[in-house]
UniProtKB/TrEMBL annotation:
<dbReference type="InterPro" id="IPR036388">
    <property type="entry name" value="WH-like_DNA-bd_sf"/>
</dbReference>
<dbReference type="InterPro" id="IPR052509">
    <property type="entry name" value="Metal_resp_DNA-bind_regulator"/>
</dbReference>
<dbReference type="Pfam" id="PF03551">
    <property type="entry name" value="PadR"/>
</dbReference>
<dbReference type="InterPro" id="IPR005149">
    <property type="entry name" value="Tscrpt_reg_PadR_N"/>
</dbReference>
<feature type="domain" description="Transcription regulator PadR N-terminal">
    <location>
        <begin position="20"/>
        <end position="82"/>
    </location>
</feature>
<dbReference type="InterPro" id="IPR036390">
    <property type="entry name" value="WH_DNA-bd_sf"/>
</dbReference>
<protein>
    <submittedName>
        <fullName>Transcriptional regulator PadR-like family protein</fullName>
    </submittedName>
</protein>
Amino acid sequence: MPYAGGPMTEAMYYILLALMQPNHGYQLMAAIDQVSGGRVKMGPGTLYGVLTRMQKEELIKIVHDDGRRKTYAITEEGQKALVAEYQRLQAMIEDGRMLKEGE
C-alpha cells in the first residue's frame, strides 16, 4: 500500500531513513548526510518544516523533549510508508531499465 500522501519528497524519504535510529535535529542533519553518502545536505529550515509535517501525518513522533532538544523516532506507520516508497522507487528503476538496455 503506497503512502497516502502520494510520492514522498526526497527530504521526507531521507528523514525517515535517518530516523531508523532516534535522533534530534543536529544529529539528524548529520545522519541524513551520512545515509545519503553526502548527496543530501539538509538545512534547519527544511528539516524542521518537514519534521512538523511528518509529525502531523504520524510518520514520526517525539520520544524525548528536555525543553532544549527534541528527539524524534519513526513510527510504525512511518516504517510502512518508507517501505512503500522504497518499493515505488524500485519499480521506477525497473521501468527505466530499457534506457540501459538501449546503450
